Structures are given as C-alpha cells and as structure tokens.
Amino acid sequence: MTLAETQALFAELVRRGPEADPAGLEACLAGTPGLPAAERVGIYAGMYLGRQVEALREEFPRLAGLLGEERFLALCRAYLSEHPSEHHDIGQLGRELAGFLRREPDPHRPDLADLAELEWTRSLAFGAAEAEAAGPEAFAGLAPEAFAAARIRLAPSLHLLHLGSGAASLWSALEAGEEPGPPLPAPTAVAVWRSGHRVLHAALGKDEARALAAALAGEPVERICAAFAGDPEPAAAAHAALSSWIEEGWVSRVEGGGTGGGEA
Amino acid sequence: MALSRVDLGHGIGLRTRHFERFLAERPPVDWVEAISENFMAAGGRPLAVLEKVRRDVPVALHGVSLSIGSVDPLSERYLGALEALVRRIQPALVTDHLCWGSHRGRYLHDLLPLPYTEEALDHVARRVGRVQDRLGRQILLENPSSYVAFRDSTMAEWEFLAELSRRADCGILLDVNNVFVSARNFGFDPIRYLDGIPRDRVGQFHLAGHSDRGTWLLDSHGEPVPAPVWDLYREALRRFGPAPALVEWDDRIPALETVVAESRRAAAIEAEELAPALRRAAP
After folding, report:
1. What is the pLDDT of residues B151-195, one digit of tens each?
2. Taking phi first (over 0 means left), then psi (-120 to 50 degrees means alpha), and beta for anything else, what does residue B123 get?
3. What chain B residue is nearest to A14 in terms of C-alpha separation?
4. Which residues contact A188 (CB under 8 A, 6 or more apart)?
5. Beta strands of B98-212 (E only): which ranges?
6. Residue A41 contacts B where some CB pair is shorter than 8 Å
7. Which residues, including other chains, have CB under 8 Å from residue B40's CB and lie 6 or more apart?
C-alpha cells in the first residue's frame, strides 16, 4: 500500500472503529497473539473519541455535569460527527457546540445551548488578552466639555451575552452542586469577564446591558448614558454603572472626546 | 551537519492550571516546555503568560499538530502560526513528533503511527527540510508511543528515526517512556532501541508515567515516572550524555510542587549517572 492509501484506511479505522474495514485492517496491520491487530486499532479509535470528549468536557464542565456521562458522550458523538475538527488546536473543538445545540435542541432541556454558550464565552474570557485596568481617575482626566464624546475602551476579556433562559443561574446551581431547577424562558443579559486569573459572569439589568452593548460598539459616553434615560434618576444610574465597570476592571482606558480630552 | 545541542538542565511543562502559581512563585526549574498550539493565539493571555515566563527561563516549544508524516500538504496556517510564535518566544528548542495527525484537512488530534518504509522516510525527510527552512533552525522529532505496526514496514522505528535524523539533519527528542511503552507493546528490548539511536542526534529527553492495561501499556502521562523508566533514563544518559530533560504530566495534573519534585529527581539521577564519567575525565 502507498502511504496515502495507508493513511486513508487508518483514518477511517480510527474514526469509525476496527469494524469499519476488517479486511483492510488485517491486510495492513500486524498484531500479536496476545493483542490482535483489531484490538490495537481499537486503542486508537478509543483515544480518538476519548481525547476529544475530554477536550469538550474541559471547555463545558457544567454542561457535562448536567447531562451525566452517557448523555454527554452521546452529545459529543453527534456533535463531532457533524463538526469534525478542522483546527490544529484541540481547544477550538467546542466553538460550534452552542450553535449545534440550538439546531438540535434537547426537548427536556432547551436551555443547554445557552449553558454551552455561557461556558464557551467563559473559556474565551480566560484566554483573552491581558489589559491594564483603568482606575477612577480615568474619567477625572477628561475636560468637562469632552466627557459626553469620550469613548470607553473595555477589557478584551469582557463579553456580553443575550441568553433566552436563566443559564447563568443554572451555571451557578451546578457550580454549587445544587439540584438544577427546570428550564424556564428568562431572557437575560450576562456579562462575562476575567479578573486576575478568575473568570466571572453576572446578569445585568436591561438598562445596563444596553449601556454595555453601546460601550462595546464603541459608542461615546453620552450614548452609553442614554441607555438609562428611562430610569427615575438617569444620571445617578449611569454614574453607578460606570463606577461599577471601573471597579470590576472592565474599563481599560477612556479616550478623550476631541476637545481638551486625553487618555487616562 | 551536526545537531546543535543545548544543555538546559531539567524542566517542566507549563500547564494552564499552574499559570497563577508559576508566575507568583517562580519554581526552581531550569526551563519550561510549552505546547506550541496552546500559545498560538495572537494577543491571547496564554501567550502573555509565556512571554513573562520566558523573561526568566528558556522555553522549548513542543508541538502536537505539525503532522509531519501526513500526506496532506503541510498546513500553511499552522506553519505561519508556529513561525510567529518562534519569532516571538525565541525558544531554545522546537520539537514535534514522528507521526501524522491530520487527514484531508481534518485533525484527528492523535499522534498516529507511520509505516516505516522508504516511501515514508523520503516523505518525512522532505517535509522536515521544508519546516526547518521555513523556521531557519533545526527541529527535533520525538519517537511516539505506539500500539500497532504496519505489515509494510521494512525497518524498525529506531532505524527509521536514525536515518531520518541524518537525511533531514534534524534532532531527536528521545522519549524514554515511549521507548519503554512501545517495547512492551511490541515485545522488543528497549536497550536495542537506545543502541540504534545515533549518539550525536539526541537533543532532549522526555520522561513520563504510563498505565498498565493488562496486555498493553498506555502512555498516559497521568502518574509519576515508574522505576523501570527511571532505569531506562539512566541507560540513555550513559549512551547520549546530558541533554535537557523534561517530566511530562498532562492528565490528572498534580500540584506544581509534585511536578517540580519529579524534575529535580531527574536532575539528581543525571548527576548520579554522569558524575563518575566526569570524575574519570578529570586529570
């Protein structure tokens, strides 16, 4: 057999198991009385699936815990057969899992896709670039007339998710080892970010989620603050939100609005 | 040409779960090995951590997805990412495995065995040449642990690796545990393997644990280095002299100090084995 033929056969045996082509296997591969060739190929087939399942479990630990061994394995098999790895980094294997779960929802737990999206985003936050966090002086460095037009540059690890269920609460229950509640529709905005070496997430109110979306889109401060227009005390609400963003380390820097502003 | 050998001492793998403590405590290791693919994302935090570590100790980049033996074309995306990482980290060593792991653009994420034939030897030697030209430096290839052999093979793995290192002018990362595991799985004497490897081509050692599955051994990297592997390491040191040595631990990764202790044990064994030779060499 040529090298190309050998690898085509071996890849097939690894993906589908020794039973995929018993005749080809016997013709190509050698075993011993104590360990026949088919069993030896089975070692590779088992590792092929096992390694990828472990990689997915590492990225989606709460999803795996919720499903249990058997259902998680079934999910991985179905997902991997539709999305075989096309990236050299096995850590990228799970990037389509939330989308897969949205297309193939679990009838008993339609919130699995949201849980997967939350876990994948937490993984992205963990690997995101580092950035210095700005302190409260970031805004103090701005001239008053530049404040409205200033733009907030956010930490690269910060993500905003719009989930259709209470997946953030589900994640917390699973993390705490509690029995998860039934899935309920609960549109929730969730911020995910990294603080030091820890990844955190928190549900946001509607106004703050709109404000954060504006900030992530690079809108100026006045548009960010406009998200709180419906609040009885819009200025106080905007101030509280921006202060908490600074406190959580979400803000990398504030860029001046052109007239007298400067980077802090 | 000969292999450019560097003597780095004894290192450990830089693993994500140890990032925080590694940066805070700077454990007593001579160098670290980073799995190349985990640090290829441009601008990501893992790369920032590696750059911080690199300021203090030498780094070896150890790849698992070069797929040097695959009949797929060498991946431009992969080579570009590796080249950028090499430029940025300036590693002491760049290593990967004698294996293949991709087929028709899909990654199998395993170190799959090659038939040891002239065709495969030509194929791999040409590709190693292209990678070394691209990186502007020699690479080292590691002997994989293997579980099945091909009927078409016309030479032993050690003969293939020895000839490849000469033909492609590359180095050998001799994984002592893999020699032990493959020897048991195929019933050959591991000393024959060591005897077949050219002395001047071994640029690094790997050590690891394995698990016994009854009729075969699994290269599991999830337990301490067992006594027979330490013994084989002593044999390797007597033949190949000192080379950077690393204890791999990738499954059920223990606390940082446990991995460091294994690395210091390797250092102590090297000192025991090589001290008499040094004494003999002294005037």
Report:
1. 999 999 999 999 999 999 999 999 999 999 999 999 999 999 999
2. alpha
3. B108
4. A162, A163, A165, A166, A167, A168, A203
5. 100-103, 106-112, 140-142, 149-150, 171-175, 202-207, 211-212
6. yes
7. A88, A89, B47, B81, B82, B84, B85
Backbone angles phi, psi at B254, to 5 degrees: -85, -175
Tokens of A186: 């609960």
Reference A160, options A197, A215, A113; nearest CA is A215
- In angstroms, the separation between the Cα of residue B269 and the nearest Cα of chain A is 33
Cα nearest neighbour of A12 on chain B: B103
- pLDDT tens string B216-231: 999 999 899 999 999 9
How far is B174 from A184, CA to CA, in rounded Å?
55
Query: Is the ipTM beyond the 0.90 threshold?
Result: yes
Beta bridge partners of A152: A254
Residue in B148, B188, B211, B250 to test binding to A, most A beta-carbons within 10 Å: B148
- Which two three-digit tokens encode residue B253? 């990764």
Residue B22: closest CA among B57, B70, B67: B57
Q: Do B45 and A129 touch (CB under 8 A)?
A: yes
Helical H runs in chain A? Answer: 3-16, 22-28, 37-59, 61-82, 97-103, 112-127, 137-140, 167-175, 206-216, 221-226, 234-247
Q: Does residue A27 belong to the interface with chain B, where contact is any CB pair within 8 Å?
A: yes
Q: Looking at CA atoms only, how far is residue A35 from chain B in angstroms?
A: 7
| Amino acid present at B189 | D
pTM: 0.89
Q: At A37, list the tokens.
A: 């060739």
Retrieve residue A74's tokens.
């079934």
Quick one: angle between helices A112-127 and A167-175, nearest 10? 70
